[in-house]
Design a protein that fits this description.
Layout lengths: L1 E4 L2 E2 L11 E5 L9 E6 L8 E3 L5 E3 L5 E6 L9 E3 L9 E4 L5 E7 L9 E10 L9 E2 L21 E6 L6 H14 L4 E7 L5 H9 L4 E3 L13 H13 L5 E6 L9 H6 L1 H5 L3 E5 L3 H14 L6 E3 L6 H11 L10 H12 L2 H7 L2
Parallel strand pairs: 2-7, 7-10, 13-16, 13-17, 14-15, 14-16, 17-18
Antiparallel strand pairs: 1-3, 3-11, 4-7, 4-11, 5-6, 8-10, 9-10, 9-11, 11-12
Helix pairs in contact: 1-2, 1-8, 6-7
Length: about 350
């Protein structure tokens, strides 16, 4: 065990309340969510920032000592990588995302260039035993997902889910527009992100838009979601927020309908489908919108409430989507009020919002 001064603590470690002087050890368990300290070996001119526990984005440079979490990532538009089988100090891993996930890179995105290479220093130690200097490997999150597969009790709280045709299809922007519209109508809104890879940026944006309480899978010790853990994560986050008695819950399914982060597993779960009051589909173009609507209807037996995203950036896209899919299409950025009003009607919250209005 030895002391190390770190320059940057990534947001994936937010629940661990680390100081910039930490204790590390050389016996590293190669398990998802284990926190390690590394030294950055190269500099980059793009995709070169790290989200800190404060939520700020900080530039990473050669020589920085950072804390991140071991994990994997299977991204369509980003680095993909796997969890190493074993690690010792001096080994090299790569920084796979902006939230601090560290693993062995398998595939790069040409627009991002090569990832940061990082020299492993050791596992970060936690000291959970009062009065004892017995360190154990620190891990992401404090709470664990609920493994119950039974009905989800929401006590009448409506749930609005946002699913996308792929990454970067406008899900978070639409979620923020919906949260903001609901808040302007006097409703108490809680929000969460159910799937993806560790990064708090999206739920911070939802908080900025007016969400009272938020959650994300990393709160449950999950660095990167999969089909195996995504349904349990969704159940746990829903149950956690409903206990706080919001008027409505809005949640984002990170990644796309076809992907490796578990969106399909959530939408295939019959008990979770039952609690979805409204489903908003975000799409990049009319073809993606048409395919996404078809998937939701035929694969998951879900009727989408509305289509939004870049596919609705002008009237041409809106007209094509509505004609070919028979689903309303509203641009969240240009017409957030109309999107909110449609969802208020679908969730049955319109009358409550009217009463709350000054």
């Amino acid at each position: 065990m030895r002391s190390v001064v770190v320059d940057k603590i990534s947001s994936v470690a937010i629940a661990n309340d680390l100081s910039h002087e930490i204790r590390i050890d050389s016996n590293i368990p190669c398990e998802e969510g284990v926190l390690i300290a590394v030294e950055v070996l190269n500099s980059k001119s793009s995709y070169n920032t790290l989200e800190l526990t404060s939520g700020r984005m900080a530039q990473v440079k050669r020589g920085d000592v950072i804390v991140g979490a071991l994990g994997h990532r299977k991204a369509l538009f980003g680095y993909s990588g796997h969890l190493p089988e074993k690690l010792v100090p001096g080994d090299t891993v790569q920084l796979l995302n902006l939230g601090g996930v560290l693993g062995i890179c398998d595939s790069i995105n040409p627009t991002h260039g090569q990832p940061f290479d990082c020299r492993v220093l050791g596992v970060v130690l936690d000291f959970p035993y009062l009065g004892q200097r017995v360190g154990v490997p620190a891990r992401v999150g404090k709470q664990k997902p609920n493994g119950d597969n039974g009905p989800v009790a929401l006590n009448g709280v409506p749930v609005v889910a946002l699913a996308g045709t792929c990454m970067n299809s406008g899900k978070t922007a639409a979620a923020c527009a919906i949260v903001s519209r609901f808040r302007h109508d006097g409703l108490v809104v809680d929000a969460f992100k159910a799937t993806g890879v560790a990064l708090r940026r999206d739920i911070l944006a939802m908080e900025d838009a007016g969400a009272r309480h938020t959650g994300i899978f990393t709160d449950l010790g999950i660095v990167c979601t999969t089909s195996k853990n995504a349904p349990a994560i969704t159940r746990t986050l829903l149950s956690t927020l409903v206990r706080r008695r919001p008027d409505v819950i809005v949640f984002e399914l990170g990644d796309g309908l076809l992907g490796a982060y578990g969106v399909e597993a959530i939408l295939h779960d019959p008990e979770l489908r039952k609690v979805l009051t409204a489903v908003v589909l975000c799409a990049n173009d009319p073809v993606a919108a048409w395919g996404g609507v078809k998937l939701l209807r035929e694969e998951f037996e879900i009727e989408p409430t509305v289509v939004t995203g870049p596919a609705t950036d002008n009237q041409v896209g809106i007209d094509i989507i509505e004609q070919r899919s028979n689903v309303p299409a509203i641009n969240a950025m240009a017409n957030g009020a109309a999107l909110g009003e449609l969802l208020l009607a679908r969730t049955g919250l319109g009358q409550r919002a009217a009463k709350a209005a000054p």
